[in-house]
Amino acid sequence: MIPVEKLPAVLSGIWAGYSFRNKLSQTPGGNLHVLQMKDLEEHYTAIGSSLTCISFDTMPKKFLLQAGDVLFLAKGANNYATAYTPVLPRVVPASAFFILRPNVQKIDPGYLAWYINQPPVQHYLKTHASGKRTPNINKDVIERITLPVPPLARQQAIATIDRLRREEMRLLRTIQERRTELIARQLLTVVSTPALYDPCA
What is the pLDDT of residues 79-121, one digit of tens each? Predict the structure, then answer.
């Protein structure tokens, strides 16, 4: 039988992202990249590479993302998780996120993100969100998530299958977009080419 654990039992820590007091603006040559809601892609489950770069010299170390951290979007209607893979140096999530730092002896980051994104957990989150205009998931709600914890090898297999599924979806979208562009170009060529003169017409 697969054991079931509460989320804190498989984490090394959980805390909110950094709360910046001022509006963030791009600073060429800055020393910190900030992850915001607008940087999420693929239905809020992937991170883009065009993060805002700022200068900030007093950032506490715990807010700097590490490979394998799981980011959970706590604000808004799309409360999804994604396992973090470094794309830029010194990345800090804004306060819309929670950082879930897995105990990798117990839980695979990809598996954890996958499970949080599944319908049972998503339903639980939506029914426990607070706030009317902008739904918000607080730390208490996140810590009450329970999840099955199969052996690590099985977790890793599930995470791999999910990663390949998402990659397949990305490729299919790219193929569809290029096919649409190709057909549009061909049709425009047809209507833009002057009809040949037929003297027998």
Answer: 999 999 988 889 999 999 999 999 999 999 999 999 999 999 9
How far is the C-alpha of 74 from the C-alpha of 78, rounded, in Å?
A: 8
Radius of gyration of the chain (CA): 22
Distances in Å between the Cα of 21 and the Cα atoms of 18, 95, 97 are 10, 11, 16
| 113 touches 47 (CB < 8 A) | no
69/86 Cα distance (integer angstroms): 10
Q: How far apart are CA 87 and CA 35, in angstroms?
A: 11
Q: Do residues 11 and 101 make contact, with C-beta atoms less than 8 angstroms apart?
A: yes
Backbone angles phi, psi at 102, to 5 degrees: -70, 150
User: Helices 119-127 and 109-116 meet at what angle, rounded to 10?
Assistant: 60
Provide the H-helix boundaries in 31-151: 109-116, 119-127, 139-143
Residue with the two structure tokens 């490729």: 171
DSSP H helices, the chain, are 109-116, 119-127, 139-143, 152-192
Tell me the pTM.
0.85
